[in-house]
Fold these 2 entries.
Entry 1:
Amino acid sequence: MSHYRKILLAVDFSQTSDHVIDRASEISIDCDAEITLVHVAEYYQHEFNVGVYIPELNIEEELIEQSRKKLQNIAEKMDVPEARQLIEVGSPKGEIIRIAEEQECDLIIIGSHGRHGLGLMMGSTANGVLHHAPCDVLAVRIKE
Ligand code: AMP
């Protein structure tokens, strides 16, 4: 598998992500490839529309900060430098594809299921990435 040089690992922090991270570590070692980690913070304004004034910016910043800490913990175990720990905001599928294009990744590693997919053959993010990716995609099988 020495073909892959730049791997994008999409992490959603769900219970299943440990298994996906382990597989990605093995593959990056086998290929001697560089790993970039990405987490997409899904911030929906309407979730907080409960009739109380909450500064939106703080919620988004807080979400990003929490995500950054979680990604940092994973990155430390995988020896991934800060420059390759990416937190984006928006649609997971769209952001994963955008980053893969921008960084010229040759492999995207995702879980077959994460937070949106249990009960389906493949989760919605996994499905979307698989159909629109500019490169190979490995969907690590998550057994239910
Ligand atoms: P899903 O299709 O949403 O159930 O998730 C399948 C896989 O897509 C997960 O195992 C992750 O690898 C990736 N993924 C889903 N949501 C995100 C997210 N917000 N940020 C990064 N990766 C994600």
Entry 2:
Amino acid sequence: MAFPEGFLWGGATAANQYEGGWEEGGKGPNTSDAMTSGSHTVSRQITWRNTATGETGALPVYAVCEEGLPEGLEVAVVDGYYYPSHTATDFYHHYAEDIALMGEMGFKCFRLSMNWARIFPTGEEAEPNTEGLAFYDAVFDECAKYGIEPLVTLSHYETPLALVNKYGGWKSRELIDLFVRYATCVMKHYQGKVKYWLTFNEINMMSMGSFMAGGLTDGSPHAKAQAAHNQFVASALTVRSAHQISPKIMVGQMLAYNPIYSYSADPADHLLAMERERDALWYADVQVGGHYPAYRLREMERAGIKLEMGENDLELLATYPADFLSFSCYGGSTVSLRQKELEVASGNLAFGMVKNPYLETNAWGWATDPYCLRIALNELYDRYHKPLWIVENGIGWSDEVKADGSIHDGYRIDYLRKNIQSMEDAVELDGVDLMGYTMWGCIDLVSAGTGEMRKRYGFVYVDRDDEGKGTHARSRKDSFYWYKKVIESNGEDLD
Ligand code: BGP
């Protein structure tokens, strides 16, 4: 048998795309609450208010990430826009039903994120919001009924909005202590209920999606580097705090990692592929390896970036690295020096990438890559020698509900079968130490990239559309029954 006894099969979600209840139970607004919907071709927008005049408007997310928010504007939720995260797919009111469906599939693990602003509405309250704590208590108690182990991300693409407008998000060191206080509070409160925690979702998205990853409204490379550094220190302090609370708690890093392929055999293309890999890997070199790698130090030196450091920062990073490395992986990306002459790629992490001629893609440019998980797992295990966990993998597709209510998502089964086989090869043939696999978006949720509903990932369909209309009724897709079999057989039966 390839997978060890106790392998953590399951699914993954995030509060900003799934939970909803944005103004219920005393929750404060988050960065994601001020993001409109978009599409494959139209960017999501961030809405703002002019603090002097009260005028309101919106800017594309990429513009805020690259150029920042102009002086005098603050991020705000304003009338007249549609914000998909406000209700999302309403886990807030459907958690018992959803966890029962996960139980029916045989989930051993459920990855969800906790909404920081549900616990500390502005991030700075002296005491946590008890209604917020009670909500997640109810969620974890429900999980326990089915023997489902929660894996909780402390910050998945959201920062309390008050901290963004007051401090400029994670570029300020103020957020370090505020985050560690929040993390310590929930790790203590849920001790005995939650063993596995992740600090920041896809921490390396600070480079490309800094508003989502760090609540940044300053697009400069310096702000991004400082924000990442502040999150590293916060992560190290969270690891320290977790181990003080209980030696049983494990805290992981979460990295967006797609293997990078060289388009041609030209060594210059190969060098480029290595450099693009390092764009992601340096984050793990710091958070898992415990120190800034030489190539990153040189890169910052060349860019004139000088980090503001606390006296013990480097020691903290070296002493409290993450206990394990979790990552998202959807398929490999391809680079070439001749990029301009070639067809460009689209899909996640596709900026500056070219289309891989060996892989088929769907309407969102997503390819089914039968080798990416094996390659990714080997690369990360060889480099860090720490337990790994695939916490996101899956494919967004527009599902069709037939007249009889059935949903035939053979394309999803095909994608997952190939990916799980590739992961199995890494475990069985290469001996990689893998803790678990949580398929992304196990119950349909809002897409982070486009804010759409039509780009669906789930084993379970949720009746809601791109305008926010629908009953939120849940129904099982064909892949639901397929995944149930996969888990039952501990990965032996992929047919
Ligand atoms: C990852 C994010 C998730 C999720 C996923 C799918 O980058 O961690 O939050 O959204 O990608 O991407 P999308 O939602 O853009 O389809």
